[in-house]
Amino acid sequence: MVISMYAPNVKVIDVGRKPLDDYVFDAIISFREGVNDIIIKGRGDGISRAVDLYWRLKDRLGDSIELVNVEIGSERFKGRKRSYIAIHVRRRY
Questions:
Q1: Residue 81 and residue 74 in contact, taking contact as beta carbons nearer than 8 Å
Q2: Could you tell me the domains of the chain?
Q3: Which among 18, 28, 58, 68 is least surrounded, fewest beta carbons within 10 Å?
């Protein structure tokens, strides 16, 4: 899965150090604005936070979202090779 090759109706949320509730709010607003797919991406220490974010979204939105794909791997990021997780979530109608 290549993140940059997705349709324009896909939002990528890079999980960093902000509170998880900020990312949850961002995802919910994106769904309400018409985004159908969200990719939650965490690198390095952010991997566990990305998984936590997925579960918070799942708890909050329930069956209105579905897990499409989970990808794990490594990539060059800022000159270093770092592990990542990309969790693809889709809004159900």
A1: yes
A2: 9-91 (3.30.110.20)
A3: 18
